[in-house]
Write a structure and sequence with these properties.
217 residues; alpha/beta; Rossmann fold; nine-stranded mixed β-sheet; 9 strands; 24% strand; globular
Length: 217
């Protein structure tokens, strides 16, 4: 059984959609549509979805989704973006780094919401900020791997957005988004457990969100 990404053309490229209970990375430069793809994914089942945001405040996410006619009214959002007051109240960490101080309460909050809400779909935007909670590359990978297992161990499907692809080796699928002078495009470069339509496929960003023409996929 497959689960829809919320974009029919992308589902076609994926031979019917994503395999449930796995982790997928969508990566690309800023402005390529990573967050919009995540909103499509969550809008399929907003009442059983969870968005963990490190990049945009919750109110802006809801506003952007409404502008794209994507219904996320019942979506649970964990907003980890700093408030305006944070700048004036910046703490000085004399002994421990900010990541060491903030990691434990943040991961406890995430795990608590996942355990209590049992979301079927989880989207993290952006995952680079989550990885930076660990001090070095080794700990960053261990943090990512443990989170992937925790988030999907109940059959939940996890989608993470990042400008980088450091986690590509640890996820089950990779979706690359690009935007340039020749337009926008999408390419699936990895999909464990399934075949997919290879190659670069044109993609459009419209008032209804991301669109991938079926005849192009």
């Amino acid at each position: 059984m497959r689960i829809s990404t919320g974009i029919s053309g992308l589902d076609h490229i994926l031979h019917g959609g994503l395999l449930p209970g796995r982790t997928y990375l969508v990566h690309g430069e800023p402005g390529t549509g990573k967050t919009t793809l995540g909103l499509h994914f969550l809008s399929c089942e907003p009442s059983s979805g969870l968005l963990i945001s490190f990049s945009q405040p919750a109110e802006r996410i809801r506003s952007d989704a409404a502008a794209l006619s994507l219904d996320i009214a019942n979506l649970t959002i964990l907003d980890f973006t700093p408030s305006a007051a944070t700048f004036a109240e910046m703490q000085i960490y004399d002994i421990f780094s900010p990541s060491e101080v903030e990691r434990d309460p943040l991961t406890r909050q995430i795990s608590k919401v996942i355990e209590e809400k049992a979301p079927k779909r989880i989207f993290v935007d952006s995952f680079g900020s989550f990885r930076s909670l660990a001090a070095d590359a080794f700990q960053q990978r261990r943090l990512a791997q443990s989170f992937f297992r925790f988030a999907t161990m109940r059959g939940n499907t996890l989608l993470i957005a990042s400008e980088e692809k450091e986690c590509a080796g640890d996820v089950d699928g990779v979706i690359l988004l690009t935007s340039g002078t020749e337009g926008r495009s999408v390419r699936v470069t990895k999909l464990r457990g399934s075949d997919f339509h290879d190659g670069t496929h044109p993609m459009r960003l419209s008032s209804g969100g991301l669109d991938i023409p079926l005849n192009a996929a």
